[in-house]
Specification:
This protein has helices spanning 3-41, 53-66, 85-94, 102-108, 125-136, 150-155, 170-193; strands spanning 46-49, 78-80, 114-118, 140-146, 161-165. With 197 residues, it is an alpha/beta fold.
């Protein structure tokens, strides 16, 4: 086995997917960033959730908002719903794992807030439940998916934004998810602070 060849193939596949997806996804990413910006300007907040690698992406997004992305700016209100182990384990134990995000959204979400719901398959039961809870609270949803969007794609309303990576390999989808998150952070900063020369 030529490990270097396999590594080069991963790089090439990732780069090719990103270039192939940009025309399809860029207008939707811009709309999602606008939705986030409008929420923040109205004193709303962004909640984020996902499982596994998508949980890491939810944390990454919240960190970029509360801390900073590429330039200094005031802190922005974003909460990752994947980080409080006491809440997660209590809900999973006392109720059902499918409710670990939905119950937090019902507790913390307000009308006008935004949910960033991340799932590579679009079929994660607890993310589907989170979308339902967000809609109940009058929140808008940005669904970040792949593999055709799955059940999440079916729940997206006209007020929501669906960012679906046109691919079926989880690793490739996750790589585009990270790039998408960085694009969202940059676009929000540009909207709030002005374009940087």
């Amino acid at each position: 086995m030529d490990t270097t060849h396999r590594i080069r193939a991963h790089f090439a596949d990732s780069a090719q997917l990103k270039l192939a997806a940009v025309d399809l996804m860029a207008p939707h990413i811009a709309r999602a960033a606008s939705l986030m910006t409008d929420c923040l300007l109205a004193d709303g907040k962004i909640l984020a959730c996902g499982n596994g690698g998508s949980a890491a992406d939810a944390q990454h997004f919240a960190a970029e908002m509360v801390g900073r992305f590429e330039r200094e700016r005031p802190e922005l209100p974003a909460i990752s719903l994947v980080t409080d182990t006491s809440i997660l384990t209590a809900i999973a134990n006392d109720y059902d794992f499918a409710q670990i995000f939905a119950k937090q959204i019902r507790a913390l979400g307000d009308s006008g807030d935004v949910l960033l719901a991340i799932s590579t398959s679009g079929n994660s039961g607890n993310i589907v439940a989170a979308m339902d809870a967000a809609h109940e609270r009058g929140m808008r949803v940005i669904a970040l998916t792949g593999k055709g969007g799955g059940r999440m794609g079916e729940l997206v309303t006209a007020d929501d934004v669906h960012l679906c990576v046109p691919h079926n390999v989880t690793a490739r989808i996750q790589e585009v998810h990270l790039l998408t998150i960085h694009c969202l952070c940059d676009a929000v900063d540009a909207s709030l602070l002005g374009d940087e020369a």
